[in-house]
Amino acid sequence: MLKFIYGTMGSSKTAQALILAHDIRTRMHRRVYLLKPSVDTRSPRIESRLGISADCLTFTPTDNVLDIIFAHGDTDLSTPVSAKVAVIIDEAQFCTPTQIEQLREFSTCDLADVFCFGLKTTYKAELFPGSRRLLELADSIEEIPSLCSCGAPATQNALFLNDTLQTTGPDTIIGDTEYRPLCYNCYKAALADAARGGNTPHGRKRNPGKPRV
Ligand SMILES: [Zn+2]
Question: Is position 91 annotated as part of the catalytic site?
Answer without folding.
Answer: yes
